[in-house]
């Protein structure tokens, strides 16, 4: 993963440009708009700090908001996941997923969907990540940090099925999901397997399957917009997560094409 922002290459733009209406005449170039959004994601800057020589920040925010409402980032994310899997010699859709959460602090003066995670002592929001066995993010959701992991995951089951289809056979998770979430999966004939470290273990112990989703969570540290939740709406927060995975997938696809 590259640690520095760079504008989209021709190959990367060609991979996602079919999702945009490029026939319509516009005042601003959509490729530059997306470059600005990805720059914000990487640097963590405010909208108003977009350099005026690039584009007006109001225009960049307008397109971000419109694409967010149209679920465009989620659809691009799913397509790039499929493309990357195919380049790795795999089926487009996964048969095994892993699920886990991350609690992050919430910016001051924002009270919507805020809560205290008593276990991690984090006053903010809780992110739910659903990834495949190579760490690609397929489904994400965000709510208050005081919510239980299992109850947060239950509404995602149908969304997971919609994204991954009938190929899905198993979901890995920790003890927190071995209740209502596992029961919901069972109704759809999907196996849930609890992955946890031995009770006798001390300190950090990498756990088979679970380390994959934990690694995906750690990738968010490369994007300063994600080290803390700055968004007033959880829909914006979720779409920044999809954009981070989009950036990672674009880098993978570019590297694969060059080799």
UniProtKB/TrEMBL annotation:
Residues 93-243 form the Transposase IS4-like domain. One of its GO terms (biological process) is DNA transposition. InterPro entries: IS402-like_dom (IPR025161), Transposase_11 (IPR002559). The keyword DNA damage does not apply. It comes from the Bacteria. PANTHER family: PHP DOMAIN PROTEIN (PTHR30007), TRANSPOSASE (PTHR30007:SF0). This is Transposase IS4 family protein.
